[in-house]
Amino acid sequence: MNAGFDVEAINYDVNFTYTLIGKAQRAIVHHHLKKHLENPLHILEVNCGTGEDAIWLAKQKHVITATDISENMIAQAKSKTKLNNLIFLQLDCLKIQEKFNPDSFDFLFSNFGGLNCLTKKELNYFFENTASILQPKSKLALVIMPKNTLWEQLYFVLKGKFSEAFRRKKEKAIAPVSGESVSTYYYNPKDIVNLSKNNFKYIESKPIGFFIPPSYLESFVKKHQFLFKVLVMLDKWIKKLSFLSKYADHYLIVLEKK
What we know:
By secondary structure, the protein is α/β, with parallel strands linked by helices. The chain has helices at about 1-15, 20-35, 50-60, 70-80, 95-100, 120-135, 150-160, 160-165, 190-195, 220-225, 225-235; strands at about 40-45, 65-70, 85-90, 105-110, 135-145, 175, 180-185, 200-210, 250-255.
């Protein structure tokens, strides 16, 4: 799995982080995160990619340990900053309990579908391991790709690609990442609640990219920037409507350790 992400690392910021869609979706994620980050926290980020969120969190005065399975993603992240309250580590998110002591962190964050690379069994294992390294009442904030993204269904139906339109509803989908095939699993909020219920309780979920389209439509929004501004405004307007989470490109779900 990490082979594709190692190759993608050098292009990830150009292909997503610094795009119109990437910046707009990330801004909504950060807006929702702020209310859960009132006090300085020791935060573990998994699937940190090139470190954009870790750097933002560190600038909010939190202490950040940011991890990713891809060596090249971590290398790109390290090249961006020298902040003293931020550490980058190459680490598989399924092995965090082997690296860190119990109660090491009081917040965990994962952005933009990194956890969609895990099967249901692996996700259940992840939640059990996560609980062991978090302090009581700690929160998880996870950005996940759901099964029912309306933008994707509409886009592929209009192109006559009906199998692609409903690919997220499959038990497993294959996503190309820099020429490598990556197994991808989609989860609605209720799926995450059920998989984590032994260790965590549900706090909230919020849509990320209900009107803002998926990143593969970047060329379209560049040509129609006034329309894109309208879509961003609409996304900001509905950002609190939890029931839209399973229809967006991503959603943020917040859980609390029992």
